[in-house]
Amino acid sequence: MSGLLIAFAIVVLIPLFVATWRTSLLGLALQGALIAWLSLRDESTVTLDVALIAVDVIGLRTVAAPLLLYQVMRRRNAPPRNDVIAPNLFSWAIALGLVVVAFRAADVLVPIEGDDQMLVAVAAASFVLGLFVLAASRATFSQIIGVLRIENAIALFELGAPGEHGSAGLYAAMSGVLLVSVLFFRWYLVHVTSEGDDEPATESAVL
Amino acid sequence: MNLVYLSFAPLLLAPGIGSRAARPVAPLVLLAASAAQAAAALAVAFTVTTGTSLAGGYLTTDATARLFLVVINLVFLGIAGYVWNRARTTPELADQVSRFARLSLVFMGAANFVILSNHLLAGWIALEITTLAATPLVVRTGVPSSRHAAWRYLLFSSVGLAIAFVGLVCLGRSMATTGAPPTFFLDELRSAPTDAPNMWRRLGLALVVLGYGTKLGLAPMYSWLPETYDEAPPSTTALLAAVQFNCTLVCLLRVLQVYRAGDRDLVATELLAIGLVSMAVSTVSIIATNNYKRLIAYASINHAGVIAIGLAIGKSASYGVVLYVVSNAFIKAILFLTAGKIKAHYGTKDTREVSGLISDLPYSGLFLMVGTFALLGFPPFGSFLGELIILSGLVRADQILVFVIFCSLVSLSFVATGRTVFPMIWGAPKKKVHWPRQSFLSVTPKLAFLVALVAMGIYMPAPINALFRAVAASLGAG
Fold first, then answer.
1. How many angstroms separate the CA atoms of B146 and B234, rounded?
2. Strand, helix or coil at B289?
3. Which of A33, A180, B198, B424 reaches 20 to 30 Å from B380, CA-CA?
C-alpha cells in the first residue's frame, strides 16, 4: 500500500511544478486511477458497493472529469502553459512546507507507524495542496483543478478510513453530486472568462 | 401516508413545471406547492410530539426538524407569493419565473431533506443538492457579473462542504479509535456512550465548524456572500439568506448537539473567534458600503457572527440563539424582497440615489424601516430578545471582554446602518417617479413575516415556545 501512496503523492506534486494544463488533467486522472487501485485491490467479488466505487473512481474521477475539462481546453485552443501556483521559489517552498506539515500532523493523529499513518499523511498533503492551489490562483481552470484535487484527497481519505461509508444509495448520491458539480465546472469553464467581464449587461427586469 | 413525505413532493413537481406547456401556470403551481408544503410543515410541527424515525431511520421529526421545517417552508411560501406577484405584474419575466419555479422546487425538496435528516452524511448530500440547484438561480441572463458571482458561490460552497465532509469523516474515525461502531445516524450517536474527546474528534469538529461556517458566511471564508447576495435576483437572495442559511445551520447544530453533549467547551474557542472576526469584518464593510443590498448582506455576516458566539456560550444563551436564528430568517426575507422592489423602482442599488421611500413607495419604505429596526435589534422584535439573551449569556459565562467587543461592534454597525438607511426612508425625494399603486396582496407575505417577528418579541403561543425550548435544550440550555 505504501508504494501506491508514494505514487499518489508524486502524482499530486508533479503537476504543481510542470505547469501545463495537460499535466494538471493527467495528474487528476492518475490520482483517480491510484485511488481505484487502492480501494479495489482487495475486492475479489463484484458487489453493488464495489461497482459503485468503481464507477465513481474509475468512471468519474479517472475518465469523465479530466476528459470533460480537456474537451473545453482543447476547443478553446488554450495555450499549453498553465500555472496552478505562482512559478517561483517562494510558492514551491510553501507547497513543500505544506507537505511536511501534513506528514507531521499525520504523526500526531496516527501515532503508530504503518499504512494508516501514511494514508492520512498523503491524503492530508493532497488536501492542503488543493487548498493552496485554490488560494493561489485566479483563473477558472486552476480553481477547478484545485477543487478536484480536494475531492480526490477526500476520496482517498474516506475510502481508506475504517467504518461505515454509508449505504450504496448514499454512495450513489455522492457520486451523482460530484458528476453534476463537474458538469457545472465545465459550464463555468466555458462561460466565466476574463473576456466575459467586458460584456455589457443587457438585462431588463429582475425577478 | 405520513405528512412528512409531502415535504419531498416538490421534487416530483419540478420536472413537469419545466415544460413549455406548463410555463403559464408555473407561478401558480409554485404558490400552490409552497402553500401545501407550509401547511404540511405546520401539521407535522404541531401534531407530532416525539422524534419519530422514518424512512429506514434516515428521517427524524425531533424538535429541531419540526421548528426549522416550519420556518423554511413559511419563508418559501412568502418568496413564492412574491414571485407570483412579480409574474402577474411583469409578464416579460415569464421565462425567469419558469426557471425559478423548477429549480426552487428541487431546492426546497432537498432543503426539507436536510432539515429532516437523521443521518449526518445524508444531510450533507442534500445540502450539496440545494447548492447545485441554487447556483443557476444566481445567474441573471445578460449580466456577466452575476455569472462570476455564481461561480464564486459554487466554488466557496464546494470547498466549504468538502471541508465539512472531511470533518465528518474525522468524526467517524474518532468513534473507530474508541472501539465504538462508527455511525452517522443521529439517534445512534445520541445513545452511544460519551467518551473523552480525542484528537480526531477535536479536528473533526473544528473542520465541520470551518466548513459549514463557510456556507454560513462566517470568517475567514465569507467573501462569496456579499457578492452573491448582491448579484442574485432578490427572490434567489431571499432563498439563500433565509432558507439555505437555516439548512446549513441545522447541519451544524446536529453535529454540535451530538458531539458537544459530553463536553460543552469543545470548539467553543473556535466559534467565539470566528464569531468575533465575522462581526468585525462585517461592521467595517457596513461602514464602507453604499450599496443597500450589500449592506444587508454584510448584516447577514454580522448575524452569523452573533449566532456563532451564542453557540460558543451555549447554556443559557441557547434559547436566545434559537430565537435570533428564526427572527433572522424572517428579517432577511423581508429586507431582501423589499430591496428587490426598491431596485426595480429606482434601477439602482446605490443608497445615495434613493431617497424619500416612505412617500414614494410607502409599503416598501415601511418594510425597509421596520426590517432595519428588527435588523438592528430594536424591541419589540424577536431579534431584540434573542440578542439580549445572548448578551446575558456572555455575562453569565464571565466573557466580559467578548461582551465589550460584541457591544462595541453592534453599536458601530447600528450607527453605520442607520446613517445609510434612514435617509433612504425619510430623506427628501430626489425625483418624482410615477409608480403604479402597490396592492395590499403584494405585501401580504412580508406583513406575515412582520407579524411573526413581533410575536416572537412580545408573546409566543405555548406550543411554539415549547418547540423553541426543546431546540434550546438540545443545545445545552438548562
1. 13
2. coil
3. B424
Cα dihedral across residues A11, A12, A15, A17: positive or negative: negative
Greatest Cα pair distance, chain A, in angstroms, is: 63
Q: Which residue of B has its CA nearest to A168?
A: B122
Query: What is the pLDDT, as a whole number, of residue B457?
Result: 86
Residue B20 has what pLDDT?
Answer: 78
Q: Three-state SS across B456-469?
A: HHHCCCHHHHHHHH
Closest Cβ opposite residue B144 in set A108, A143, A196 = A196
Strand B59-60 to B53-54 pairing: antiparallel
Q: What residue type is B43 in one-letter code?
A: A
Answer for the pair B331, B371: CB distance below 8 angstroms, yes or no. Answer: yes
- What is the phi/psi pair of residue B438, to 5°? -85, 125
Q: Which residues from B are below 8 Å from A158, CB to CB?
A: 165, 169
Report yes or no: A112 at the B interface, CB cutoff 8 Å: no
Q: Could you tell me what percentage of chain A is helix, strand and coil, using 3-state DSSP and rounding each to the nearest 5? A: 75, 0, 25
Which range of A66-70, A164-168, B347-351, B375-379 scores highest in mean pLDDT? It is A66-70
Q: Counting beta carbons within 10 angstroms of the beta carbon of residue B449, is it exposed (0 to 12), middle (13 to 18) or buried (19 or more)?
A: buried
According to DSSP, residue A80 is labeled S
Residues 6 or more apart from B334 whose CB is under 8 A from it?
B367, B370, B371, B374, B446, B449, B450, B453
Q: Report ipTM (2 d.p.).
A: 0.91
Instruction: Say if residue B252's pLDDT is above 90.
Output: yes
Q: Which residues pair with A20 in a beta bridge?
A: A81
